[in-house]
Amino acid sequence: MTDDPIQPVSRAVPDLAAEQVAQLKRLFPECVAEGRVDFDRLRATLGDLDALAPRDGYSFTWAGKQEAFRALQAPTHMTLRPAPEESINWDDTRHLFIEGENLEVLKLLYKAYYNRVKMIYIDPPYNTGNDFIYQDDFAQPRRAYLEKTGQMDAEGNRLVSNPESSGRYHSDWLSMIYPRLFLARQLLRDDGVIFVSIDDHEVHHLRLVMNEVFGEENFVATIVWEKVHTRKNSALYFSVSHDYILVYARTRQQKGGQPGWARNLLPRENTDAYQNPDDDPRGPWKPDPVYANNPYSADYRIHKPNGVQLGPPQGQYWRFSEDSWQRFVREGSVIWGNGDSYPMVKRYLSDVQDGLVPVTLFTREFAGDNATANAELDSLMGIDRLMDYPKPSLLIQRLMQIGTVPHSSDIVLDFFAGSCTTAQAVLELNGEDGGNRQFIMVQMPEPTDREDFPTIAAIGAERIRRVIARMNAEREGQLPLDGAADEDLGFKLFKLGPSTQKQWAPPAEDDVDALARQLAAFDDGLLPDASETDILYEVLIKEGYSPHASIQPLDTAGQRVYRIQEPDDADGRAFYACLEPRLAEATVDALPLERETLFVCRDTALDDSLKTNLSLRCVLRAL
Length: 623
Fold this sequence. Notes:
Blueprint: E1 7-8, H1 16-27, E2 32-33, E3 36-37, H2 39-45, H3 65-73, E4 78-82, E5 96-99, H4 102-113, E6 117-122, E7 132-134, H5 141-148, E8 159-161, H6 169-187, E9 188-198, H7 203-214, E10 219-226, E11 242-249, E12 285-289, E13 291-292, E14 302-303, E15 309-310, E16 317-318, H8 322-331, E17 334-335, E18 344-348, H9 349-352, E19 361-362, H10 364-367, H11 370-381, H12 393-403, E20 411-414, H13 421-433, E21 438-443, H14 456-475, E22 492-498, H15 512-521, H16 532-542, E23 550-556, E24 559-565, E25 574-578, H17 585-590, E26 598-601, H18 608-617, E27 619-622
Parallel strand pairs: 1-27, 5-21, 5-22, 6-9, 6-20, 10-19, 20-21, 25-26, 26-27
Antiparallel strand pairs: 2-3, 4-22, 7-8, 9-11, 10-11, 12-18, 13-16, 14-15, 17-18, 23-24, 24-25
Helix pairs in contact: 3-6, 4-6, 6-7, 12-13, 13-14
């Protein structure tokens, strides 16, 4: 146990390996010793009594899989820096746009959003050989990010093309996607779902890696989306007209088992077939036949009021049991017809308005296509062909209708956000059905060749602004619907950036004086140009608070203290932070500190007496 009662604020998050070992230790303490897991003993504990025997079982691997695990386990030293001047409705909105490399961002979101996201949609690079993939630096994430954004010379990590001539064509793509999918699963709720767009280049590998990350038992479906309607006559073999969307649940709902993701029905849009020519008090209906091709075990004859008796037509079967048929007769839901014609049963609109079971074929009429997407983006931005192959917002809306609940503040995450089609889909679907979904968009500032929009992230952020402006214009002068929640037409923009805390590096000179100078530079652990706002957001994010946490300045005994509170926490979780160079004892005495209250301040702001006093009253952390 250390003699120092103060603990430092974390400079890197998250330590995934340590958290997973801690969870295993809680479940199987006999399998963890000195912080290390005895995997053979764990396997034996779980019933594999041949754990030590050689095995030839199935496994999925690729060149570089170990490096992908290292990229996943490496903590990030980055932070999210707020940009309220580039945001809309900063104080009230719950939508987020984060500009930054998505693996680093997912790690920063891990604590705050673990098991909180209802739906993820991503459209990752398809690995066609012409697009770009992310190559991850496992030891220097900050340097890798600076390189990827053009702030350093390209040495080590960078965005690179991945041609088929590469000896690691598929392996590099798998190493890129694996850690991001792994973290995505951690963010999903137990009743959450992920949709991943892909084409023929990597769909088979994506299915294998998602089986490994999510469990093949949680595979739900492969959706085929009709992306084009024109035949490409220059195609060598086939004119490809579709993409795929793989669907996996965080936990698939089992009959009689533990709850998991349950898909919604799609709303009915065309009810023209339902009429009410006889003024039936039960409302509009349409006639349904009483027989079908599928065999039913019931064996009975229908007796018409005119005395005609009917069995099912040759090769056909009754659609209903005899009890159901007699109920239809009693309720007056039968259209008998003339002579020996077969009767029909009324199918009431009120009985089927709950919706339609989704199918795995999404036609262009149902979900839009590439032409729809291009026209939508071009019209909104006023520029032709601003992006290659954007997705139509209708496609994402269809997925949200299946995967989210409108009025429950479901979080929708897209960490390959591109031009932010998903954000537009969330805003517009909320406007249509009165929903309260929240989006989190993550997009790297991948450079373009345009002066007006120098990065893909700039395109995405501006698209959100223009969608909000258009929706505000459409709602001008309209009265809000009774009982409807206030519509959230805003977003907070954050940018991934270097930590506000100094990061230790050994001195270039190998002598005692150089080491002493380096240590002296760390008397204050904060960078001299770091703003208080940036420091507070870094602290709150690394303490597991969301970027929506409120920061309330308090004038306490003449010093500025901040109260940071998580609005989504049922217990009203909060902590205090003071960034004054010297902390006054009167300030400490004026604060309502309790033993479990977290208090953060500069290490240099405390003398030994105050440090001891605070450590006895609260959880004390230093910057």
